[in-house]
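>> received
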Amino acid sequence: MPMSRPRTIASLRFFELHLHAEKMPAQNKELFERIWSGAASLEEWTAFVAGGAARPIADNAFAIHTGYLFGNVSAIRTGEGLVLFDAGSRETAAQTLAALRRLDDSPVYTVIYTHGHIDHIWGARLLDEEARARGWLQPRIIAHRNVLRHFQRYDETHGLNSTVMGRQFNQPGYVFPSEHRRPDIIYDETFDIDVGAVKLRLSHGRGETDDATFVWWADKHILFNGDFVIWVFPNAGNPRKVQR
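>> returned
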């Protein structure tokens, strides 16, 4: 039977706010509409969410934004703790965690990597550190099998990635992140989880990367699409490095 049409899409970039603009205060909505139409720059959006800003997606679900350059995070409250979709980048993960804690102080039970890019997975180490400090169980992380292969390649080409990323973003001395937090559970095609009576289906697809996961929350008709939908054309790589 085909999947019913999503009521909303929760992107880990910027897109989902277009579908929830009616929930915003008038001033916020006006800024969003100007950005969406191209009348305002995305730098203005980054200034607007500086320090981390959370926006509702549905009851007990929200997205946390820290800017347009890096992957953002979505979250669901459950009876067993929080489910997070990605964990944030090295540059903004602390802001993401602070924004999360302003809304909910529950333990993070599960983290789902939508793919292995460093701006989506680096913040997992902060969640592990928090769990140890507060005496919680370490979050379990779920990802597609290819994430492990990508992490292995990142480790083997660490020096090259540091050089290439520094040139691409004009940051002399840039050091590519290392010691990527590996997933605890991997899957191949689909994987169903039930966390605190919240039932989610993870599915593999080839989008921006070949390790991508999108997640369907059937009870709420919400699709967490990761970077399958973003605000620019997908990152197809460049002659100096491989993205997929």
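>> The domain at 8-226 is CATH 3.60.15.30 (Metallo-beta-lactamase; Chain A).
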